[in-house]
Amino acid sequence: MFSFSAPSVYQSSKCFVTYGVMGHPDPQNLPSKGKPWTTLLAQDFVHKVDLILPAELVQLVKDKIIGDPSRAPVFYKVIMTVGQILEGDFFTEYIKIGNIMMLSEGRIDSENVFLLKEGMLTMYLDKETYERAGLVGKPHGVKGKRGLKPRWVVQFDLRSPSMLHGKKGFDRLAYACKNVFNAPVTWLFYNLSKTPVPDPLSRHYPVKYTSHPKVSEDISTKLPSLKPPIAILSSQGQLELDEFATDIYEWLSLVRLESPRISIDDKIDPYLSNYAVPGTPDDLQEGKLCRVSWQGFIPPRWTRQTLAEVILALPAKSWFSLSTTTFARDIVGDSTDCTILRPPNSPGEYLLWDVRKQN
After folding, report:
1. What is the pLDDT of residues 281-302, one digit of tens each?
2. Element (H or E) spanning 265, and its range?
3. Which of 164, 75, 157 is nearest to 119 (CA)?
4. d(C-alpha 60, C-alpha 309), whole Å
């Protein structure tokens, strides 16, 4: 229902790589400035989170992170019209006072889709719906893109003091909701604040989901060197950084996919795949990994907290990788994937891959 965009020859991705040092996180005051924290917080609706680490450390993660059931992200599926978001206690408690995330079903590049985050209602509309609604918006997408009809994007800051009944702008939005956006829509809903009593969401019969972690233990693999070469610290080290970052990102991605290509026992015909774990035979080691995965409708705040908890739970010299993937969106420059690697024997250091879709 909440599908990913189909690949297109008109779409490409750019990967921005950062190598740096981050301070030790304070669990009572999580960082909000500087990478990699800002990169995580810049994502909107996270669909999947993967944590990769040596198998011998999995018990620490179980004891200090995934062992607490209350940590698992809880979200809801609910059927509502857009207008019902603007009505009564739901509007007052969840938008004016509280803080929620909502994402409607559909594909942004071809259907009418509605998003709500930090009080900002964003609507991606086809030309006919946009003209019927009579709202003020902007063209959306790249001009001249073959096979796609014109699209429009309209935004309203629902937390603005002017967003009240009786105000011109709000009444125009309410009129459009009543006469144009009046069909029930399936949404994903996440509450970032305290749940009000009584809960205004309950009257819409929401279905509750919990993103329980899936643990894959004892993944036998060939381990490349995860320590960046010293040359990348010099001004002439860009080529070495690019090559190292490309190889390690590909390897981590195959681990996330549970690809047999990284297995110790992989014997595939080179005619079918010529992939090899990066490094010389003398550099490669045999080891076991663990992958912990969460999937659902996850806020960026949760991924930031998880990164901080992993850093605090694991020994300072151990390595790990945390990756996040957002719901696919057809927006120029929208971040779709983020991977953070703390290399072995490198307390505080990190490599960050920030993959963004470009149309």
Report:
1. 777 888 899 999 999 999 999 9
2. none
3. 157
4. 11
> DSSP states of 153-202 as a string?
EEEEETTSTT-STTSHHHHHHHHHHHHTS-S-EEEEEEE-SPPPSS-GGG
d(CA 160, CA 270): 60
DSSP designation for 105: S
pLDDT averaged over the chain? 87
Distance of alpha carbon 80 from alpha carbon 339, whole angstroms: 35
Contact between 355 and 246 (Cβ < 8 Å): no
143 with 134: CB under 8 angstroms?
Answer: no
d(CA 157, CA 140): 18
Asked if residue 296 lies in contact with residue 310, where contact means CB atoms within 8 angstroms, the answer is no
CA 305 to chain centre: 14
Q: What are the extents of the domains in the chain?
A: 12-73+212-358, 74-210
Task: Dump pLDDT digits (tens) for 236-272.
Answer: 567 778 888 899 999 999 999 988 888 888 888 878 8
Predicted model pTM: 0.88
Do 75 and 297 contact (CB within 8 A), yes or no?
yes
